[in-house]
Design a protein that fits this description.
six-stranded mixed beta sheet; 150 residues; 8 strands; alpha/beta
């Protein structure tokens, strides 16, 4: 995404190429993304309580790397200025939880500011009485852009 914040010469989504800043691969997320692109899995938008967003790789700590920590701080600063779009994450439901599999910098930035709700694209139908602003399913022709592929 061209509108994402930069730290030095890196965009936030490029930080995972740095040694030590590569989380475990989530095969479930990859499968859901492929199915969403084919229209097999619907994609929704929802405001999800931050407390229900859980990382896939619980051992991944970008906040312990200087570049990761700076990126987290920068994303958090953008969000505090009212640019909530920098916090939009792609998640998938697992029971009552929503798994964050790739947007760790955004998740850590949200955790640093503790907003009650975060905006999310959800791969699969989101359910739960705590969700707000549930919209969708999103039109198939928009899914590739949402997933950062178009």
């Amino acid at each position: 995404m061209g509108d994402s914040p930069k730290f030095g010469s890196f965009r936030v989504e490029e930080l995972h190429v740095r040694p030590g800043l590569t989380p475990k691969t989530d095969e479930r997320m990859i499968d859901l993304m492929k199915k969403a692109l084919r229209g097999v899995v619907p994609v929704y938008f929802a405001s999800i309580p931050l407390a229900l967003c859980v990382p896939f790789d619980v051992d991944y700590r970008p906040d312990l790397d200087p570049v990761g920590a700076a990126a987290i701080a920068q994303v958090a600063a953008y969000a505090r200025k009212g640019n909530w779009r920098v916090l939009v994450m792609i998640v998938y439901p697992r029971g009552r939880w929503f798994v964050v599999s790739d947007d760790y910098i955004k998740l850590f930035a949200a955790l640093s500011g503790q907003p009650e709700y975060v905006p999310c694209w959800v791969l699969g139908k989101p359910e739960g009485d705590l969700l707000q602003q549930v919209q969708g399913p999103i039109a198939l022709e928009t899914v590739s852009r949402i997933l950062g592929l178009g």
